[in-house]
UniProtKB/TrEMBL annotation:
Membrane topology: Multi-pass membrane protein
Naturally occurring in which organism (per UniProt): Spodoptera littoralis (Egyptian cotton leafworm)
Sequence intervals crossing the membrane: 7-30, 36-56, 68-93, 108-127
Lineage of the organism: Eukaryota, Metazoa, Ecdysozoa, Arthropoda, Hexapoda
Family as reported in the entry's similarity comment: Belongs to the HRG family.
Name used for this protein in its record: Uncharacterized protein
Pfam families for this protein: HRG (PF16954)
One GO MF term: heme transmembrane transporter activity
GO annotation, cellular component aspect: endosome membrane; lysosomal membrane; plasma membrane
Subcellular location: Endosome membrane; Lysosome membrane
Keywords, comma-separated and alphabetical: Endosome, Lysosome, Membrane, Transmembrane, Transmembrane helix, Transport
Length: 173
């Protein structure tokens, strides 16, 4: 569990820095591209933070189906691929034009750094979802009901109705 707590701390730092850089670069320095990459980086870090926290509280299987985790992983891989493409593009521009870091409004280097961070957090989010998908049990592979344990205890062997409230009768097989 110490490893998960370390991942939580790192993801929280990434989320806070991404949001802070978004506010800083968009509002203060007017470098909209760097601010957007920082926001997407912070979003990927926030999703990773959310997954780590749910795993630590042992509520990951209750709140997320396998399909939901796969969608979150797909979002991470899109962030990784687009961050990789942007990093290579900004690296080319930096080498070709030999631009300075200042002025910050037109700095290619800052865009390069935040596109790299978006690539890194996209990959980390994808790897996190793959790791947590492996923790799902076989009986949850084919079930869309996250409360599979509760439904198994409600089933009665003799085929009598499980619910005895007024107007409610559910038959089990």
């Amino acid at each position: 569990m110490l490893r998960v707590k370390i991942h939580i701390a790192i993801s929280a730092i990434g989320a806070v820095l991404g949001l802070s850089a978004f506010i800083c670069f968009c509002l203060v320095y007017a470098n909209i591209e760097a601010g957007m990459w920082a926001l997407l980086s912070g979003t990927n870090a926030s999703l990773a933070l959310m997954l780590h926290c749910h795993y630590l509280k042992e509520s990951l299987h209750v709140n997320f189906s396998r399909k939901a985790l796969q969608y979150i992983g797909d979002f991470g891989i899109v962030g990784f691929v687009s961050g990789l493409a942007l990093t290579m593009f900004y690296l080319f521009l930096e080498i070709y034009y030999k631009a300075d870091v200042l002025p910050i409004k037109t700095s290619i280097m800052i865009r390069l750094v935040w596109s790299f961070m978006m690539m890194k957090w996209g990959l980390m989010l994808y790897l996190t979802t793959k790791k947590y998908l492996r923790t799902y049990n076989d009986h949850q592979l084919f079930s869309e009901n996250p409360h599979i344990e509760e439904t198994e205890t409600l089933i009665q062997r003799d085929g009598q109705p499980t619910g005895q409230d007024e107007g409610e009768s559910t038959w089990t097989v």
